[in-house]
Amino acid sequence: MSYSVTIFGIHLKLSPIAFSIPIGKGHWDIYWYGIIIAAGFLLALIYGLKNAGRYNLNPDRMLDVILVATPIAILSARAYYVIFDGEKLNGIGDFFGFGTSSGFAGLAIYGGVIGAFVSGAVMCKIRKVNILDMFDVAAAGFLIGQGIGRWGNFVNQEAYGAFTGSSFWGMQSEKTISEMGEGLVHPCFLYESIWCIAGFFILNHFSKKRRFSGEISLMYCVWYGFGRGFIELLRTDSLMIGNLKVSCLLSFAVCIAGLATLLVLRRRFAENSVSAEYNAVFSENTEESENNTEEQNEDN
Question: Where are the domains of the chain?
Answer without folding.
Answer: 33-57+130-268
